[in-house]
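FAQ: What does a ligand-bound record look like?

Like this one, built around magnesium ion:
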Amino acid sequence: MENFRFKALVELNNRQPVQFEGTDKAVSSYFAENVFDRDKMRKYLTPEAFEAVVEAIDEGTKINRKFADQIASGMKSWAMERGVTHYTHWFHPLNESTAEKHDSFFELTKSGGCIEKFRGELLIQQEPDASSFPSGGLRNTFEARGYTAWDPSSPAFIHDKTLCIPTVFVSFTGDALDFKAPLLKSLAALDKAATCVAQYFDRDVRHVLSTVGLEQEYFVVDEALYHVRPDLMMTGRTLMGHEAARNQQLEDHYFGTIPSRVAAFMREFEEEAYRLGIPLKTRHNEVAPNQYECAPNFEEGNLAVDHNLLLMSVMKNVAIKHKLRILFHEKPYMNVNGSGKHCNWSMMSDKGVNLLSPGKTPRNNLQFLTFFICTIRAVYEYGGLLMASITNLSNYQRLGGSEAPPSIMSVFIGETLQKALNSLEEKIPNKKMTPDEKTELKLDIVGKIPEIMPDTTDRNRTSPFAFSGNRFEFRAVGSGSNCSAPLLILNTAVAQQLTLFKTETDKLIDKNVKKDEAILQVLRSFIVKSKDILFDGNSYAEEWRKEAARRGLSVIDSITSAFKTYLEPKSIALLSESGVLSKKELESRYEIKNETFLKKLQIESRVLGDLAINHIIPTAIQYQNVLIANVRGLKELFGDKAGDMIVPQMLALEKMSRHIKDINIKVYQMIDERKKANATENIIERAEEYFKNVLPYLDDIRYHIDKLEMIVDDEFWPMPKYRELLFSH
Ligand code: ADP
Ligand code: MG
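The answer part, i.e. the structure of the complex:
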C-alpha cells in the first residue's frame, strides 16, 4: 500500500522555496495605487461629481443619477488604464466570506460594433442572482431577489484585474442579507449619540468615528501535507492527531525569527495589500509553532472590516503561490494555541481626538471617563449578545484554552483605572457637592488619571474584553470571522448608553446642577450599575466561572443556548429601536447561526467517520497483521520459549483491538445520532440535538484514534502527524 504521508514528506523535503523578489520601491510610492481614492477621484471626476462623492462619504447624502453616470465613467477610465476588463459588486453575505459576480465592461452596440461601458445605474445597484446565500428565511424562492447597493464610504479597488465596488446586500423587501448594511447603520447611530456627548466637552465636534484595528492570527501549513489531511481540507482543522512531544512549551516561537519561506510569503501578500491601501504595520511569529500574526494601523470601522476581509482573501491566494495553505480556523490543532482576531476599538472625534485616551487635562479626563464608563456599561448590559455574536463551532473550540479568553464575558481595565472608578464611586455624593468636594474630585481623581501607555497596561491575556491604554480590545473574536457581527452590537450598545447618559445628565442640568457635577453624578450611577462586569483576576479559574454566574454575567456553556441571546427581548429592543436590525432580521440571523453551526458540525462528523472507518481502522488492522505474523514466526522458531518474547506484541494487539472496537462502535452510534437529529424538522431543535448528541462523539472518537497513533508503526500511519504539520515549513 502506498503511504501518502511519506510521499508528502518527500515532496516537502524536495521543495524549492518560492522566491519573491518584490519591488525595491518604498511602500509610500505605491501604497493604495489600486484604490479609487480621493486623489484619483479628483483626477478622473468632474469637480461637481467629486463634491457629490465626498459629501456622500462624509455626510451620508445620496448621489443623483447624473453624477452617478459621471462617477461610473471616471471609475471605468481609471480601471481600464490599468488593464481591467470586468467589474463586480463586492459584498459580505452571511456566510462569513465575501462574494462577487464579475461582469464585463464590454457591450455590443446596435450597429454591430462593440464598446466598453459602465453606467451609473450599474454602479449604484445590481440584482445578482444570489438565491443560494443564507437568508435565514428572509427570502422565499419565489421572491429570491437580492440587491447589491453601492457603499461610497469604502472606495472601489482593483483586485485580480477586476474593478471591485463595495456594496451592501439587501432583499427585495429591503431586509439586510449581509453584515455591512447593519454595520453602517450602527456606525451612524454611534456617530449621532457620541457627537452629542462629545459636544459637552467641545462644542465644535460634528462627527465621531469608530476606529478599528484588527489583529489577524493564522497558521500556515505546507501544501503537500495539507493535501493528505482530508480533515484540514474539508473542515479547516485537524480532527485527530496526537500531541507532538514538543509544541509551544519552550516558548521559543513567539516573536522568534520568521522562517525564510514564510517571510517570502508575508512580503508578497503585504506588497499586494499595500497596493490595495491596506495599512499593514506589524508581522510576527505567534505563540504556537507555524502560527503568525499581522496587524494594520487602525482605520474607520467600516473600512477596517472591508480591509480585513480583503486581506484574508489576498493571503489565501498568495499562500497558494508559495505552496502553503493558510488556516484561519480558530482551533486547527488541539492543545495548541488557537487563533483570534483581536478587535481593537475606540472612538475618535472629527477633531482627531481619541475619546478613549486619558491624560492630557482634567477636562480631557472627564471626557475620557465618560466614554470609558459608557462603554463598560454597554458591555455589561449586552455582554451576552456580544458573546453570542462571536460564538460559532470553531471559536467555541478555541475559547477557554491555551491563552484564549474563556467564554465568560468580563472587562479588564487595569489597576490604575480600577482605583479611579472606585474613588469616583466613593467620593461623589448623591447630592450637591461643596466647592471643596469638587476641587478634591477634580484634582485627586479626574486630574490624576495619568496617560496610560499601552505598554504599561497589564497584558491579561485571559480577559475577553480588555482596556489597553487608549482603546478596548475585544479578544474573544475568532480569527476566521467577519468582525462586523460583534462591532455592530458594540457600536449600537455604546450609542444607546451614551444617549441614556446624555438624557440623564441633561435632566440634572435642567435642575440647575452644574454640568461637570451632573456628568460626575451620572457617571457614578453608571459605575454602580455596571461594576460587576469588571474583573482582573484569572479568567480560567473555576471560582471565576461560579462567581461570574453569581454576578449574572454571560457564561457560555452551550453553543446553541448562546445563540438564543439574539432573541431575548432586550437584544431585539436594542437593535430594532436603533434601526440597526429589525426583529425579523435578527431572527433570520439567529436561524443562520444555528444552520451554519449544524452544517459545519455535520461535515466534521462525516469526515471523522470516514477517516476513522476507511483510513485509521484499516491501518491499525494492517499493523496488527504484521504483529500476528511476527508472533507466529517467533512461536515457530522458539516454540514454548517464545513466551516472553511475544508479550509486547500481544499487548499491542490487544490494545489496538480495544481501540478499534471502540472507534467502530462510536462511529456507528454517532451516525445514528446524526440520523435521529436529521429527522427533526425544526432547524433550531436539530442544531440543539447536534450540539447535545453528536458533538461529544468527536472528542471521544478522536481519543481512541490518537491512542492508536501512538501504537501503530510510524511507517504505516497515513496522515501527517502534529510534529510534521507544526514544525515543517
Ligand atoms: P498588541 O499586540 O500590543 O495588541 P498590535 O500592534 O499588534 O498590538 O495591535 C494593536 C492594534 O490596535 C493595531 O491594529 C492598532 O492600529 C490598533 N489601535 C491602536 N490604537 C487604536 C485606536 N485608538 N482605535 C482602534 N484601534 C487602535
Ligand atoms: Mg492585541
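Follow-up question: can I read anything off the structure? Yes, for example: Residues 215, 342, 473 surround magnesium ion (ligand 2) (CB under 6 Å).
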